[in-house]
């Protein structure tokens, strides 16, 4: 029986340290982590590795339920996959485990409440943005990537894949930024084309 920890944050600028520290303190000998959105399971390679690695009696440990996913159905599917492998899922905050029948009910309710809360947050955020636009104070979100740096790297002959790898982002983000800068991915400026 092994306790396997899984930690996740959504963006590159978020920190995994507190989750990793908590999982170590809980006795997780193996911990897998990644910086990727929890909106879907696409691209969550470390989570797939953990699920594949689970053996009967093992326990998948996460600090919070939303580390497994944002959608209740997706979280329940993950829990079901773990159970198909005769493994358990334990959430540390609040402490709930699928070892008992009550744990399943509590995890389902927690997942539904978390999903509903995310919807409320998005609604309040949208209302705040609309209000700020009306008042003329809305500036939009801060760009996470330095567009000038990407354009410079591209003009130096680096391709979108190399730029994405160097900056730790997706190629699609690089393509979008180059397009917004009026450059094509093959290096030609739109003004020259």
Structure summarized in a few sentences:
The protein has 193 residues and is an alpha/beta fold.
What does this protein look like?
- The structure is a single chain.
- The protein has 193 residues and is α/β, with parallel strands linked by helices.
- The chain folds into two domains: 3-112, Resolvase, N-terminal catalytic domain (Rossmann fold); 141-193, Arc Repressor Mutant, subunit A (Orthogonal Bundle).
- Helices cover 48% and strands 12% of the residues.
- It is built from seven helices and five strands.
- It has helices at 17-25, 45-53, 72-84, 101-135, 147-155, 160-167, 171-180; strands at 3-9, 30-35, 59-62, 88-91, 96-97.
- The protein has a five-stranded mixed beta sheet, sandwiched between helices.
- Helix 6 (160-167) packs across helix 7.
- The longest helix has 35 residues, at 101-135.
- 21% of the residues are buried.
Taking the sheet with the most strands, its summary is: 5 strands, mixed
Parts with pLDDT < 50 across at least 5 consecutive residues:
189-193
* Number of H- or I-type helical stretches: 7
Sketch the topology as an H/E string, one letter per element. EHEHEHEEHHHH
The level 1 CATH classification of the largest domain is Alpha Beta
Q: Which strand-content bin applies to the residues?
A: 5-15%
What share of the residues lie within helices?
40-55%
Numbering strands along the chain, what is their spatial order in the largest sheet?
2-1-3-4-5
CATH architecture descriptor text of the largest domain? 3-Layer(aba) Sandwich
